[in-house]
Amino acid sequence: MDTQYDTLMPHQQQQQMSTKTMVIAAIVGVTIGGPLLALMSFIFISTMALFVVTSPLLIIFSPVILGAGFVIVAAMAGFGAAGLLAIAGVSALGWVLRSVKSGQFQQGLESVTGKLLETGENVKESVKNTGKEWAGNLKQTVQDSPENVTANRA
Questions:
Q1: Angle formed by the axes of helices 104-144 and 62-102, nearest 10°
Q2: What's the alpha-carbon Rg for the chain, to the nearest Å?
Q3: Do residues 149 and 143 make contact, with C-beta atoms less than 8 angstroms apart?
Q4: pLDDT tens across 16-50, in order?
Q5: Residues 6+ apart with CB under 8 A from 99
Q6: Is the pTM of this model over 0.90?
Q7: Distance between CA atoms of 106 and 104, rounded to whole angstroms?
């Protein structure tokens, strides 16, 4: 047993601190931790004071803030939609330019031009016929009106 006690003794002596080391550690801890604790307390107190001051203002102005938030969200959605439409327009323009360069557009242009001319002629004839019908109806209405009958008798 004596040998076992002797082997533990140097180990226990290494773990024991001297009083001087403990005092220095306490002074360093207070020197570093004291200002940090004071700063943390100041920040917490100032945050709570600002919260107490601004809470009523937030409640009073919440309808205005909510409306402004809606306006900002709507504006962002509008700008997003405008950007998407710009991308779609640029891609459509690129598609048209590729079609023109490849010559496919020329063949399609001739068929579309023919269809447009044919449709224009059909619309022209339709308008003429409708105008003639309306003119006939108006002439008949004027002849059959009571004012015209009394004017014809006189």
A1: 110
A2: 47
A3: no
A4: 778 888 889 889 989 999 999 999 999 999 999 99
A5: 105, 108
A6: no
A7: 6
